[in-house]
Amino acid sequence: MTIIINILLLLGVISILTFVHELGHFLAARLVKAKVIEFAIGFGPKIFSRKRKGTIFSLRALPFGGYVKILGDGDPTSEKESRKESGNLKNKSKWAQMFVMLAGVTMNILLAISLYTVYLGSNGWKMSVSNTYETFKPVGAVISKERYSDVPYEIATEDGAFKSGMYEKGYIVNVNGESIDSHLELPKVLSNYKEQLVDIYACTEEEECSTFNVEVNKEGKIGVYTGNNYDVFIDYTNNKIFSGVSHSINVVKLTVGALSSLISQAKESGDYSEISNTVSGPIGIYFIIDYFKTLGVITFLGILADLSLSLAVINLLPIPALDGGRFFILFIESVLKKDLNERIEALIINISFGLLMVFIVLVMIKDIVNIDQLKSLFK
């Protein structure tokens, strides 16, 4: 039963993202007065269709994606006669054509912005991030920290802390009366007392507390491991109205930063497997949905926003079969003030589409091969 629910949720998510994306192309085409032949959700045989105002609205059997068929945006050999029609997209200005090409991406971005605003508003206008991002410079926000305990520690070696009789593990409250706010402060404070004795006030989880006279070694250490004692947030409290816009930008910045770091590490080690693991398809989305569906509607909306933004970014890539590639071709044509040969353009787009489909299949095969690894990520 769980699998069926997850599959239905997966199809629902894909349908929402596709509908919003294709709605953008549809509305833009209508605005520039281009004829929309069909608005389809899914591929394959028709399950349902209705014609209205010259457009066929259809639901098809394979619910993975969808499309909007616009007159003039297709195989030139089958639309040779239609070029004379005023509703042909090719008869519109290059700016109008570029507007139509980017409208789907724009709608996905607007969906992400709207969902992020709802998500952030429901979470006190804050987004929790890893402690590794406390030096991150967000757009339209600040990094805030919330301390939730004293500095946790555990004795690691038979040095000063061990010899002083300090608790095996617990929390460090202060050193020589100086409060320690984070694990990063402890080594800074101890470095001032190298090869000296310090009074460390520490407590156990059971709230048993005592002061220990501890020797600091010449390296400024006392022989303990320490852990985090605060959470890091991207805080939009002072930018509530545009928080969705700012957060969309910050998500892209964080993603690019993480990918850049992975690429740098891969170059140094020669192991690119971690980079390949960052790319996933419907199977990966299935496990994301399976994990996050139990965390509530608001969290699920945040994930839907992430997926919508990811779809927008992917579609902006300069690949001829994608919106970004189509936009790039139109931009080149507008600069050159000359259209590419329609047959050559169609061939380039079709070949890139074929390669894109092969890539998607390879990603799905990779996900199937690494399915146990995918499962472990969401336990």
Could you give the topology of this structure?
Elements: H1 2-31, E1 36-52, E2 55-70, H2 94-122, E3 126-129, E4 142-147, E5 151-155, H3 160-164, E6 169-175, E7 178-179, H4 185-190, E8 197-203, E9 209-215, E10 224-226, E11 230-235, H5 243-269, H6 273-276, H7 282-292, H8 297-315, H9 323-336, H10 342-369, H11 371-377
Antiparallel strand pairs: 1-2, 3-11, 4-11, 5-6, 5-10, 6-7, 6-8, 8-9
Helix pairs in contact: 1-2, 1-7, 2-5, 2-8, 2-9
Features:
alpha+beta; Pdz3 Domain; 2 domains; 11 helices; 379 residues; 11 strands; 3-stranded antiparallel sheet; elongated; 6-stranded antiparallel sheet
Briefly say what this structure is.
The protein is an alpha+beta fold and 379 residues long.
Query: What Rg do the Cα atoms give?
Result: 28 Å
- Strand percentage lies at 15-25%
**Structural class estimated from helices and strands:** alpha+beta
Quickly count the helices.
11
Average pLDDT = 87
Largest sheet: 6 strands, antiparallel
Spans of at least 5 consecutive residues with low confidence? none
The tally of structural domains comes to 2
Distance between the termini: 19 Å
DSSP strand count:
11
